[in-house]
Design a protein that fits this description.
This protein is an alpha/beta fold and 242 residues long. It has helices spanning 2-11, 48-61, 76-86, 98-113, 138-150, 206-219, 228-241, and strands spanning 42-44, 65-67, 89-92, 121-128, 156-158, 170-177, 184-190, 195-201, 224-227. It is 38% helix and 19% strand. It starts with a helix and ends with a helix.
Amino acid sequence: MGKEVEAALLKRGHTVAVRVDEAGNADAKTLDEVTRNGAEVAIEFSAAAAVRPNAEIYARMGMPAVVGTTGWESSRDEVRALVASTGIGYVTGSNFSIGAHLFFALVHKAASLIDHLPDYDIFGYEIHHAAKKDSPSGTALTMAERILSATDRKKRIQTETVHRQIEPDELHIASLRGGSFPGTHTVIIDSLADTIEIRHIARTRGGLALGAVMAAEWIVGKSGFFTVEDFVSDLLRSEGKA
């Protein structure tokens, strides 16, 4: 992701002030070694355990940040409080792909349309490459949460294999891991008469990188804790007025 982000930055006319990679393939191994060096914003795709300590460093520097790392929900309130106390801008999300957020919007609308059509059921699945560390993915959980927010029929997300009949109020989201898939997310709306599928296929990680760079452009000059949904909503409103 670091290489993808750098490519997206350069393509949009930006320069990279410093690269951080604990494997040693960059300008610094840890964020502790870094001075601001003229940078306007940080873009982070790291390990979950690094998010909170890195947020402390951004706060100390007065540096706005875009964070695409997932799996650190237990530290979310602490990071939010840190951001509020220091006044930096901070954007976080499980998926910065603009296309993925168009997918989420379509899924939400479709789920709301069938809420009062009991002949139609809704469920989904996701596929990722064999090296993917989390399962289900943050994107799959966001997909599921968008469905739950649009329907009264589904009350809870079920991500495990169920060796029984699925309950009517359970939203089943399955995960597959293998090969080199960058990410495929599918929602299925099904009845005895027909099937409707809504699918987002990430052909490369470039879409994630571009969205993160656009979010970085957006957060400069702002103060507060934002989600990627805040950024995308603002972006789509602006595009609609163009």
